[in-house]
Design brief:
Blueprint: H1 9-23, H2 27-30, H3 57-89, H4 108-136, H5 150-175, H6 178-189, H7 204-211, H8 213-218, H9 225-242, H10 265-273, H11 285-290, H12 297-304, H13 310-333, E1 338-341, E2 347-353, E3 361-368, E4 382-389, E5 394-399, E6 406-415, E7 418-425, E8 428-436, H14 437-445
Antiparallel strand pairs: 1-2, 1-8, 2-3, 3-4, 4-5, 5-6, 6-7, 7-8
Helix pairs in contact: 3-4, 3-9, 4-7, 5-9
Length: about 450
């Protein structure tokens, strides 16, 4: 194990920060990273030091192109996937669940696709601002799940979805105001009989209203890139399903929705046929509370929704909960990644998947305060090749870079951004706490 050093830590912080910037060993400390990177032309300095470098046209165009490509892909896969699977592939099988007998009018889908391209361009512009805000430190997109813990990671997804539903409901009601509807929302309602491609068919003003939610939310809520991916993927899938015109949400034997607090396809389809009702996006709460749920919603829904027994649903739900718990436990295993500082900042240890087996974690020496003192390993050498998760901790044989001793190591999460490390070489055992470079980065900024 690495010895604890007594050198003045404030000085060592400055020394490490300088070395990291010079050698680019730990880019997570010395640079700001955006949710979507544009590596070739990303600014190599901080916003406070050289703000104009962040406005470099090449860097902005590169970042915008990447965000646009990701947004377009999400729309094509989300809306296009729902259309291909539900409206084409399963059309005959789901014929009884079709809400309207007629289909979209001629030219509607082409109009929706053209409007959606414009919406993607607007969403990409806002996404580029999120990337710039992250680089400037205004928006926090953190790299390590361990920085805040898995519980916060899961909670941040839920908060984003619930907050977005509230934003959508009230902005949607505002767009239906007589003074705003024709200018900002009329195009969307030209799709009287909607399709999955209607999901992004917005006027410019409506696209902007929908887009600004995320950067506003991220000003208050630090988020991990995976959480953002889950949020935007859920958004496009629920949006596309809500416009597909075929009811896929189940109904109980008594005619009530199986999950009454979720909006169904019928719920939003009624909004397109009678615009004063059903303003919600994901949940029915706001419509119920504010009296805007269509009075015939449950009757219309029961007429087309597939029936499922409550007992079977409970079994399926229980199976899902058990599986989610198992996956959550496995997700905890994959939290051992990134770089961690040893006590006294003597070294930085990097954890990542092994090259020969992605299911096993390896550790290597990424940086050393005094490389000449590392008799057992050099910077870049692998210190552990077979770290495995036993359900509670990571275990495996590790090499001490200071003396070359082999020891049996156990690594557990002590707190968000910190590892409790226990190593034994024969009868000698040592305990240490290692901190992620994400936590160290916050210290360096202060």
């Amino acid at each position: 194990m690495l010895a604890i050093r007594s050198t003045n830590k404030a000085y060592r912080f400055r020394k490490i920060n300088s070395d990291f910037e010079d050698n680019s060993l730990i880019s997570g400390i010395s640079q700001h990273h955006s949710f979507i990177r544009c590596n070739a032309d990303a600014p190599s300095t901080s916003f406070k030091e050289h703000p104009m470098e962040f406005l470099n046209i090449t860097s902005l165009l590169c970042l915008y192109a990447e965000v646009f490509g990701a947004d377009l892909l999400r729309y094509v896969v989300g809306a296009g996937g729902v259309y291909v699977v539900v409206n084409l592939g399963l059309a005959a099988r789901l014929a009884r669940q079709k809400i309207r007998a007629s289909g979209p009018v001629s030219g509607q889908i082409f109009r929706e696709l053209m409007a959606s391209l414009r919406t993607v361009a607007i969403f990409a512009a806002v996404g580029t601002l999120i990337g710039l805000g992250s680089r400037a430190g205004v928006i926090e997109i953190y790299d390590e799940i361990a920085d805040y813990g898995f519980a916060y990671f899961a909670a941040s997804i839920i908060v984003l979805i619930v907050a977005h539903d509230a934003w959508f409901y009230w902005s949607h009601r505002l767009l239906h105001h007589r003074a705003l509807f024709r200018r900002l929302h009329k195009l969307h309602h030209r799709s009287h009989n909607p399709t999955p491609f209607t999901s992004y068919s917005f006027d410019v003003g409506e696209a902007v209203v929908n887009a600004v939610f995320l950067p506003l939310a991220l000003l208050l809520l630090p988020a991990h890139p995976v959480a953002l991916f889950v949020f935007v993927t859920h958004m496009i899938l629920r949006n596309a399903l809500g416009h597909c015109g075929i009811e896929v949400f189940p109904v109980r034997s008594n005619g009530k929705p199986l999950i009454g607090w979720l909006t169904s396809v019928t719920h939003h389809d009624l909004h397109h046929s009678q615009g004063r009702w059903n303003m919600g996006l994901y949940f029915t709460w706001w419509d119920r509370w504010m009296g805007t749920e269509h009075p015939d919603y449950h009757e219309r829904f029961a007429a087309v929704a597939p029936r499922v027994s409550t007992a079977k649903f409970r079994i399926a739900a229980l199976s899902f909960i058990v599986m989610a718990g198992l996956l959550a436990g496995r997700a905890d295993a994959f939290e051992l990644n990134g770089r961690y500082a040893t006590p006294g900042l003597g070294a930085i240890i990097a954890f990542d998947t092994c090259a020969n087996d992605p299911n096993i974690i390896c550790a290597r020496l990424a940086w050393a305060w005094e490389p000449e003192d590392m008799k057992g390993a050099r910077v870049g050498d692998v210190l552990a090749e077979e770290l495995t998760f036993d359900g509670t901790a990571w275990t495996g044989a590790m090499l001490s870079p200071e003396n070359g001793w082999r020891f049996r190591g156990t690594l557990e999460e002590a707190s968000p951004g910190a590892l409790a490390v226990r190593g034994c070489a024969g009868p000698i055992c040592v305990r240490q706490t290692w901190y992620s470079v994400g936590a160290l980065r916050h210290i360096l900024r202060e």
